């Protein structure tokens, strides 16, 4: 799930609808021209004379000398005429297309401000027509556009019927300044600001020099833009947290925080100093337009309505991007063990809800030529897939979601049929016969393991099973060998699977969980693996996944907030499953964080309330990158657990 203040997790509006909206605006323009108020032309000239007289009274009537100077120029006059006729339209259209394609979360607000700007201007054209300086008799202005027969203006025969009594406000300056305002809000940066300022300045000079506007028209455009932007901001729909994301807000407790993330290992050979906090902070600042949730927090909780996202402009960068140095007093690196302890500490600390729900810790002094970053977001912002996608977004890497979007999905009829079957299956699925021992609060232990991905795939092919089956078998065998308390004959494990199309910006939860009964009894590991493969085979039809998604997203969305909270806390705990296992795709290509190549990434998955373990695997650039979070009440040595996991695979080989 993910980041764009990249404000609401919304879908792009369709092109046809936007084109129809544009045609509707043009239709209103034609109506204003076709049905003017009585006496429009004399009133327009009188209003123009009044504006010019006001400027003369203020000794700011500089339009005439500028206009007469331009009329004597050659190519400069032609350039100004065509800049007047084309640039303001082209820049506005290009900006709308760019925001629609690259920043869909901003698009509705941007488009709405543009619509309001034009509606206000059209109302002014109708109620307060103003003749431009070039049309005032005896004022001495030269109509450079008409004399130059400028194409795409009233200087060409095709557009001679355009409304020319519409000097107030100047939409040329209005549209150019609107483009500048939008770019400033979405992209920022001095280069963008300078280019935008130059564009506005040239447009202002051109409208004056061509005799088409008074400077007061440009000043009025600023007021119109302010009003349009304010209304678009105030009137935008509330960005509610979807039910499938709210679920993880409801189940969270102080003992069981529900943030997910990634532990990213960086190669610092080329730059031994490693990434600095300031450098990482700036990298995230530069990406905030693409990661909106990083600049938003939750609204206050109410039992009567779902929470929504609200802007949080005052980001505490030192808290969100902390810096750690694990170097020992003797100057040697702290090692992976210390890094794992730091991750476990982060897992135990809830993210405060009065600020954006993310952290990105910079860790140096891990090992020689090795640094790390710990990326965390709340499960309400993103799931495991979304978290990895957000990291790749920050690293300017190809999106992980591009490949997932190519995955074939069932159509509506297939979903309905699968959902009906899946609901019946979920209703008949059992509960754990025995709960695994867990502390309250849990004493978390975190560790990681890397195995060549090709070796794991080859071993799975040898036994005719899937990699996830092999993972489940290894987890069961290792638990049996290292658990400090007696284990039941089987455990019900929550297995994470893809369940929905990813949303724009990788936001939200697009995965769902299905339950697999895993044998824990005394048996050969090959036999355990066969039983697991038989148990998971029935899950590959996808019916349970569709049904789970339907319950989490659709049915839950119909529940009142207080009932949804009760439902979530009832079904997501140790009474319904014993632990969590997730096997998700990672980047299959080399990823770099500026000067630092990524060696691999490990998942950070929260413990569900009352459960003592979570296992996460990322298939990352040739590596089977496994992480384990266990409660010491069940397993006192997480490193010993991973050692036995590897031993189980060795036996199966």
Automatic annotation (TrEMBL):
Provide the protein name.
Answer: NRPS condensation-like uncharacterized protein
Write one Gene Ontology MF term: diacylglycerol O-acyltransferase activity
Q: Which UniProt keywords apply?
A: Membrane, Transmembrane, Transmembrane helix
The Gene Ontology biological process terms listed for this entry are: glycerolipid biosynthetic process
- Where in the numbering of this chain does the O-acyltransferase WSD1 C-terminal domain appear? 508-652
- Where does the record place the Inositolphosphotransferase Aur1/Ipt1 domain? 50-230
Membrane topology summary: Multi-pass membrane protein
Q: Where in the cell is it found?
A: Membrane
According to its UniProt entry, this protein's organism is: Amycolatopsis thermoflava
């Amino acid at each position: 799930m993910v980041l764009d203040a990249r404000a609401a997790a919304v879908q792009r509006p369709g092109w046809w609808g936007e084109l129809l909206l544009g045609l509707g605006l043009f239709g209103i323009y034609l109506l204003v021209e076709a049905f003017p108020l009585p006496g429009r032309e004399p009133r327009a000239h009188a209003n123009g004379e009044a504006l010019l007289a006001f400027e003369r009274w203020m000794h700011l009537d500089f339009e005439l000398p500028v206009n007469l100077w331009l009329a004597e120029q050659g190519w400069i006059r032609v350039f100004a005429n065509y800049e007047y006729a084309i640039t303001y339209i082209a820049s506005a259209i290009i900006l709308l297309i760019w925001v629609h394609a690259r920043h869909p979360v901003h698009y509705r607000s941007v488009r709405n401000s543009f619509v309001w700007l034009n509606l206000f201007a059209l109302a002014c054209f109708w109620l307060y027509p103003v003749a431009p300086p070039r049309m005032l008799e005896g004022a001495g202005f030269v109509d450079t556009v008409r004399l130059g027969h400028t194409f795409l203006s009233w200087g060409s025969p095709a557009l001679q019927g355009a409304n020319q009594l519409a000097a107030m406000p100047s939409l040329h300056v209005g549209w150019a300044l609107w483009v500048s305002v939008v770019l400033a809000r979405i992209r920022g940066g001095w280069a963008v600001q300078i280019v935008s300022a130059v564009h506005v300045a040239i447009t202002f000079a051109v409208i004056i020099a061509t005799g088409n506007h008074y400077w007061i028209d440009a000043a009025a455009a600023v007021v119109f833009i302010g009003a349009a932007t304010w209304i678009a901001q105030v009137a935008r729909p509330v960005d509610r947290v979807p039910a499938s994301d709210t679920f993880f807000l409801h189940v969270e407790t102080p003992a069981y925080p529900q943030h997910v993330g990634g532990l990213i290992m960086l190669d610092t050979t080329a730059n031994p100093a490693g990434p600095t906090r300031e450098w990482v902070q700036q990298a995230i600042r530069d990406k905030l337009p693409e990661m909106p949730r990083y600049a938003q927090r939750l609204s206050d909780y109410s039992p009567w309505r779902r929470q929504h996202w609200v802007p949080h402009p005052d980001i505490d960068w030192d808290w969100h991007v902390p810096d750690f140095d694990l170097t020992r007093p003797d100057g040697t690196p702290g090692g992976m063990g210390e890094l794992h302890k730091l991750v476990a500490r982060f897992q135990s600390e809830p993210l405060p809800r009065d600020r954006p729900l993310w952290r990105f810790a910079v860790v140096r002094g891990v090992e020689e030529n090795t640094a790390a970053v710990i990326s965390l977001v709340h499960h309400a912002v993103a799931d495991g897939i979304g978290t990895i996608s957000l990291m790749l977004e920050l690293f300017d890497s190809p999106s992980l979601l591009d490949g997932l979007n190519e995955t074939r999905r069932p159509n509506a009829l297939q979903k309905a049929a699968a959902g009906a079957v899946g609901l019946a299956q979920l209703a008949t699925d059992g509960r754990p016969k025995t709960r695994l021992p867990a502390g309250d609060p849990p004493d978390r232990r975190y560790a990681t393991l890397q195995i060549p991905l090709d070796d794991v795939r080859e071993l799975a092919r040898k036994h005719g099973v899937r990699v996830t089956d092999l993972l489940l078998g290894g987890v069961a065998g290792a638990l049996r060998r290292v658990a400090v308390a007696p284990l039941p004959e089987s455990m019900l494990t929550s297995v994470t699977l893809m369940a929905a199309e990813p949303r724009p910006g990788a936001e939200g939860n697009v995965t769902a969980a299905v339950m697999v009964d895993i044998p824990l009894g005394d048996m050969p590991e090959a036999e355990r693996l066969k039983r697991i493969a038989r148990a998971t085979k029935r899950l590959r039809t996808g019916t349970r996944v569709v049904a789970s998604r339907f319950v989490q997203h659709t049915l839950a969305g119909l529940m009142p907030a207080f009932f949804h909270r009760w439902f979530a806390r009832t079904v997501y705990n140790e009474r319904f499953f014993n632990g969590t296992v997730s096997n998700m795709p990672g980047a299959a290509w080399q990823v770099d964080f500026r000067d630092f190549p990524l060696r691999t990434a490990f998942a950070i998955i929260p413990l569900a309330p009352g459960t003592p373990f979570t296992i996460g695997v990322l298939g990352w650039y040739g590596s089977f990158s496994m992480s384990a979070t266990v409660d010491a009440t069940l397993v006192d040595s997480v490193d010993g657990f991973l050692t036995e996991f590897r031993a189980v695979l060795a036996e199966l080989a």
